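Dear all,

This email documents one entry for the complex benchmark we are building for the journal club exercise. For each entry we list the sequence lines for every component of the assembly. Then comes the predicted three-dimensional structure of the complex as a C-alpha cell string, followed by one or two observations. Please use this as the template for your own entries, and keep the labels exactly as they appear.
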Amino acid sequence: MTHAYDSGNELIAAEQYKIGDLLSRLWDAEETIRAIYSGEADAVVVNSPSGPRVYTLEGADHPYRVMVEQMHEGTVTLDPNRLILYSNPQFAALIGVASESVAGSDFENFLAPADANLFAGLIEAAMAGNHSSGELHLRGANAATIPVRLSVTLLDVAGMQNLCVIASDLREQRRNETILKEERLSRLILEQAAEAIVVIDQQGVIVRRSESANLLARKPVLMEPFDGAFHLTASGIRLDTDRILTAMRVGEEITGVEAQMAHSGGATSALLVSASPLSSQGNELLGCVITLTDITERKRAEEALASQAEELARSNSDLQQFAYSASHDLREPLRQLAVFTELLQSRYQDKLAAEAGLLIEHAVSSAHRMEGLLKDLLAYTQAADAPQGPAAYTDANEVCRKTVATFEAKIAQSGARIDCDPLPVLAIHEVHLTQLFQNLIGNALKYCGPEPPRVHISAERSDGLWKLTVADNGIGIDPAYKNQVFGIFQRLHGGGKYSGSGIGLAICQKIVQRYGGRIWVESELGRGSRFMFTLPEKKNEAR
Amino acid sequence: MKRDNLEQLSLLVVEDSPADVFLVREALKEEGLSCHLKIADDGEKAINILDDVDAGGQDAPNLLLVDLNVPRQNGEHVLERLRRSPRCGKTPVVMMSTSDTAAERKRAFELGATEYFCKPSTLAEFMQLGKLVRVLLEQRYGTAA
C-alpha cells in the first residue's frame, strides 16, 4: 500500500485506531463464542442488511476465522510458552516465511534479539490482563529487520490462557518519516543557502527560493515571476526565463555566466548565474533551479587588487629605471676620472714628487673599485629580468657542467674537486640558473681553507619543490651572519683577503625569489657551508 | 708617433662630453692621426650636418664616432639618418657607449654600426680607439702611403 501520510503521528494514530477496532471485534467474537460454549446462549441473532441472521457455535467460529485470515495485520496466537499456535498468512508474509513453518515455532525465533526484553514486558502485561503494545523489530527471512508495532492481548477462552499478537508493519511509516525528514532538510538547506537560489516552474514563476534570493531582489519573490524579480543581462543581452528555459530544453548548460542585475534604484549587482533543469521522469521539463551568486564585492576587490598590482608594477619599474640610470650615469664621470688621473700621471710623472705616484695610484684604484660596484649594482637591478622568449625548462646537469668548466683554471690551480649528483630539469631560465651556479660554486672555490676545496652539488625533492644544495669544506660563515650575507654589498671579509663586492648572493636571492623559491645557508665557522635554494617543481611562469 | 697621409680625412664626432672629446683627440694623436675633427655635441646638430652634406652645403665626413647617449636625438637616430644619406650612407661608423649591454650592442649593429666601442676606464684601453679608427680608415680609403 502506498499512502502518503502528512506526518508520522497521523500514521500511528490511524494504525492504533485500526488495532483498537480489531480488538473490539475480536472481543465481541470471543464473547459470542464464550456465551455459546458456556450454554448461556444457544445461538445469537444478528441484524444484517439482508435480514436477521442466526449464529450458532458452529456458525460463530467461521466469521471469526475469516476475519483473522483476511485482516491486513499479521496475527498469531501463542500459548503461554510463546509457542505459535496459529499464524495468519499476513504474518507469514510479513516475515517472509512459509505459513507452515510459522505455526509450532517459538515466537522469539522471529523477534530481533535486541527486543527480547521489551517483548517479555509486553507478554507480562498482557498476562496480567492489560492490553499492551510497543514498537519492536521482527527478524524475517535473510535476517531482514522489520519494524512493527506489536499489540498483545490475553485470550482467555474456556479456561485456556493464550495470547493474541497483532503485528502492524511500520516500514511504510518509517519510509514516510525519512522522506519527510529529507524534505524538511532540503527545504532548510535551500532556505538558508548563502547564495540566492530559486526554483522556477515552466511559466517562469518562482516556486521555491532561498532567503538570500529575497535579499538579492530586495523583496519577497515567492510566487513572483522570475523576470520581474531579477532583471538580468549577460553580455548586453537580456537573460530572462525564456532564454534560460529554452537553453534547458535544448540541453545547453548555464554555468557561472557573468551577468549584471539592475535594481530598481538604478544600482547594479554583478552576478554569476547557473541553471540546471528539473525534469519529470518522462523527461518533460518542469522548470529549473537558478543559482545567483553575488560577486559585486569580489569584483570590486579584484579591481582594487589589480589596480594596486599595476601601481606596484609601475613603482617597481620606476625604481628599476632609477637604479639603472643611477648606476649607468654615475659610471661615466667615474670612468673619466680614472682615465684622466692616469693621463695626469703619464704626462707629468717627472714633474711630480715621488709620493704623488702613490697617491695617484690610490685615486685610480678607488675610481676602479667604485666603477666595479656600479657595474655590480647594474647587474643586480637587471639580475631577475626575464630574457626574451617564454620561460623554459632547464637541465640543471648541463648548466652545472658548463659552469664548472668555466672554473677550470681555478680548479686546476687549487686542486679542487667538484662532485655533482644527478640533478633535475628545473623550470627556470638557463641564464638565471647559470648565475646561481656561478655565484655559489664560485664562492665555494673562493672561500676555501687550507685544504683543497671540495664542492658537492645535490638535489632533493619535497613538497612540490626541488631543493638544490651546494656544499663546501671551506672557511664557513658565522651563523650570526647567515642572513646578512644575502644583502647587497654585504661582505664578511675586508683587507682584500677575498676579492669581490658582495653582490653575488644578493643576485642569487633575487633570482630565486623571482621563481617563488628561497635561498639560505647552513654553516659554522671553519666547518664549510651548505647553500640551499628551492625552486618550484612544476612550471611556474615567473612574475 | 706614426704619420701618414690619412691626415686630410675628416671625422665627425658626435659626443656631448668635452672630456671624452679630449680623450678621442688624444687617442687619434697617439695613433698619429691628425684628421680634421668636426664636433656635434648633440644628435640634432649631427643630423643637421648630415642634412647639409646631402644638400651639398659641405663635404661628407670620412668616418663618424657616435656616442649612443647624446642629447636631443640619440646616437641611434643619428646612425639611422646617416644610413639613409645618398652622399655618405656607407661611411664607417663607430658607436661608443659607457655601458656594454648585449642588447645595446646588438641594436647598434642592426642599425648598421661598423664597430662598437665600449668606453674603457683605463688610459691604455681608451687609446685603443685610435688603432680602431686607423684600421677602419685604411680598410675604406687605403693607406696611400
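Observations: The CA atoms of residues 70 and 384 of chain A lie 92 Å apart. Chain A touches chain B at residues 328, 331-332, 334-336, 338-340, 342-343, 346, 367-368, 371, 378 (CB under 8 Å).
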